[in-house]
Amino acid sequence: MSATLLDIQNLEKSFGQTPVLRGISLAVKEGEVIGLIGASGSGKSTLLRCLNRLETPSGGTVTFQGKTDHDENTLRQQIGMVFQRFNLFPHLTALQNVALAPQKVRKLDKATAEKKARELLAQVHLSEHADKLPAQLSGGQQQRVAIARALAMQPAVLLFDEPTSALDPELVGEVLEVLRDLAKTGRTMLVATHEMGFCKEVAHRVCFLDAGKILEEGPPEQLFETPKEPRTREFLARVL
Ligand code: ADP
Ligand code: MG
After folding, report:
1. For 181-210, what is each residue's pLDDT tens digit?
2. Ligand 1: which of 11, 24, 40, 45 to mutate, judged by most atoms within 8 Å of the beta carbon?
3. Could you give the ipTM of this predicted complex?
4. Residue 128 C-alpha to ligand 2 middle, in angstroms?
5. Model confidence over 90-130: pLDDT tens digits?
6. Any idea where the ABC transporter domain is (predicted)?
7. What is the pTM of this model?
8. How many CB atoms within 10 Å of residue 37?
9. For residue 171, which of 109, 167, 230, 234 is within the disulfide window of CB 3.0 to 4.6 Å?
10. How far is the CA of 28 from the CAs of 41, 148, 175, 212, in angstroms?
11. Pairing status of strand 213-218 against strand 18-29
């Protein structure tokens, strides 16, 4: 593992008078997979949304590829996000969903964008579903289309916000398998998740968020087996 790709320093976010992120610092190296765990409301989504500027931080700095002053569009292109609800365009096929942004934003011609989209759909095991609409796909298939769509922008970092939480249990595995493959190929990823087994297996580092702070972080074997903080222990006792 090599250079720091994303350096988060003392990140703060308030909504009105309510502080939600209260000084988050985290340096993410190239190729690193970070698991973000914590109770509902601890700030996982807000952290991810601040990183690609779906939210504007209230304080602190995010240094990405050595620069702190990227414009929003660059950040959104370079830091891809996959949501809990897949947010596909309902009137577009799987292929069109994946090929759209590269045409609009990266100005690829349609044929090139669709060729690349087919490769990405193959990568997430959906070649035979390329011409279906989202409503004709299962939740797990839709989420894999959403992952292919994020990959199509060739982001340097991928953020996943509880990518399996909206899925029926029998569909979780196929999505985690895709995430596992991405992790193996050296993708830099931050994954907010309640899938502790996935974190244990795939994450290089796990951060436990509590009330807008990283209360504890460490390699998964350490954090899960010998957590230092009482609140981490309480949380793990509830979810494991
Ligand atoms: P998590 O993803 O860990 O469940 P969130 O980041 O979604 O946590 O939320 C953290 C806190 O911020 C919660 O108390 C939530 O109600 C609050 N919050 C999130 N988004 C907004 C918003 N747009 N306006 C006001 N409060 C918000
Ligand atoms: Mg959330």
Report:
1. 999 999 999 999 999 999 999 999 999 999
2. 45
3. 0.98
4. 32
5. 999 999 999 999 999 989 999 999 999 999 999 999 999 99
6. 6-236
7. 0.96
8. 27
9. 167
10. 23, 23, 23, 18
11. unpaired
